[in-house]
Structure formats: C-alpha cells, structure tokens
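Incident log, support desk, overnight shift.

02:14 A customer reports that sequence design results differ from what the structure should imply. Their input is reproduced verbatim below. On-call engineer (initials T.W.) acknowledged and began investigating.
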C-alpha cells in the first residue's frame, strides 16, 4: 500500500479539525503520529491517512461512559495539567 502524505492543513481538513487544533495536539502529544521533514521551524509536518485513521479508531466509542476509559488511557489531553499554557507555547509563523 502506497503512503499518501498530507500537510498539516490537509490533515486537519481530512479530520474536520482546525489547523490550530492539530497544532495544539502536536504540542501536547495527544494527536496523531506525524513526520517532520527537517530540523527547525521552517520544516514541514506531514501525516499519513493511515496514521490519521488509526488515531481516530483508538477513539471510537459507543457511549459517553466509554470516554472515561479512553481518557484514562491518556488519548486526550483534557486537563489543564496535561496541556501547556497557550502563552508558553511558542507559535511558529511560516
């Protein structure tokens, strides 16, 4: 199977998230796996559809009570203690 690589904006659109949400997920470590094409802030971030689909499948639930189980596996960084303060996250401007 040939891998198709998506840039960050394309991956966000594929998952119906905002690009900023996907960026925040990279910072907190709670998002899907990604590739970084080089060192430094100018390098591209790439995702594969397979990784995006796998990440979504890990969060597939039937009820809200299952969400506690998903959250206990640290698949979502929902508490303030696991998320960096937005002011402390240095935003990279392309």
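02:41 Re-run completed on a clean worker. Output:
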């Amino acid at each position: 199977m040939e891998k198709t690589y998506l840039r960050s904006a394309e991956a966000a659109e594929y998952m119906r998230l905002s690009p900023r949400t996907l960026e925040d997920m990279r910072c907190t470590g709670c998002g899907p796996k990604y590739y970084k094409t080089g060192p430094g802030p100018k390098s591209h971030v790439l995702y594969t559809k397979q990784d995006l689909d796998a990440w979504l499948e890990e969060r597939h639930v039937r009820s809200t009570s299952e969400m506690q189980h998903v959250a206990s596996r640290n698949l979502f960084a929902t508490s303030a203690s696991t998320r960096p303060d937005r002011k402390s996250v240095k935003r990279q401007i392309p």
